[in-house]
Amino acid sequence: MVENPLILAPSILAADCAALGEAVGKIKSAGLSWVHFDVMDAHFVPNLSFGPQFLKSLRALYPDMFFDVHLMMDNPHLYIDAFASAGASLINVHIEPDFPIAETLREIHLKGLKAGITIKPKTSVYELAPYLPFVDLAMLMTVEPGFGGQKFIENSYEKIAAIKKLRDEMKLNFRIEVDGGITPENIANCAKAGADTIVAGTAFFKHEKELMAAFKNA
């Protein structure tokens, strides 16, 4: 099976909200093509963030960037059309809320986008299994979702490896993404465990030089 190249997807949740356009420009200037776009509804997670209009404005400024849209919402299925129309490249939904997951993944693909599935730190990796044949990316939250700047949960390496083992056993090739608490010190260990897509917010916007060096050496 062909290994996926390592991708770094800075999260603009950690950027200056008054200068999101400049934040995406900084990501592009670093030679990166993915932007992680966190959407929080204040129900599924205890915070509010960006809506489709923010994404639409950023897409207009940066038509060639890949927008990795992470819906931390109780009812993500109701917003697929809005975020697809706004310019999402990939829409990632959580497994924990009560909504039609399989149908939502199909809808994302029917919109011509890539689809992702995500679990919080305390959710079993094996709950992903029924959906893995139908996604382009599976993501493990390595902090409790809701706020940036949290510390990486150490047992996440075992869960990354477990997702990779599932991928190998099922002979699939979806990307494995990690999100939360990524630093220059742990990025290589995440990649070694099996992650090929790394989300970093605080580390990128506050320690770009160190993070980029660690990323290139991972």
**Number of DSSP E strands:** 8
CATH architecture name: Alpha-Beta Barrel
Beta content comes to 15-25%
Name of the top-level CATH class: Alpha Beta
Number of helices: 8
CATH topology: TIM Barrel
Tell me, rounded to a whole number, the average pLDDT: 94
Order of helices and strands: EHEHEHEHEEHEHEHH
Shape, per Cα inertia axes: globular
Largest beta sheet, briefly? 8 strands, parallel
Distance between the termini: 20 Å
- Judged by helices, strands and strand pairing, the structural class is alpha/beta
Share of helix among residues?
Answer: 25-40%
Topology record:
Elements: E1 7-10, H1 20-29, E2 34-40, H2 52-61, E3 66-72, H3 80-86, E4 90-94, H4 101-110, E5 114-119, E6 137-141, H5 156-169, E7 175-179, H6 187-193, E8 197-200, H7 202-206, H8 208-217
Parallel strand pairs: 1-8, 2-3, 3-4, 4-5, 5-6, 6-7, 7-8
Helix pairs in contact: 2-3
